[in-house]
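We emphasize that the prediction below concerns an isolated chain of 49 residues; any contacts that depend on oligomerization or on bound cofactors are therefore not represented. The input was used exactly as deposited, without trimming of termini.
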Amino acid sequence: MGIGKAVFGAGELITTFMLGAGWAINLTVAEFISRRNSGARIRRPCTGS
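Result of the prediction step, given as a token string:
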């Protein structure tokens, strides 16, 4: 937020947009990590009965 305020100024609307952008970035990164790790599970072949 410090860099955003230095670049865009300090205002209530700017702060709101910066917080929203932070949430969007965090959700995107979390989703990326979640999807990347879901394919790493070990799959064992079915042995059958």
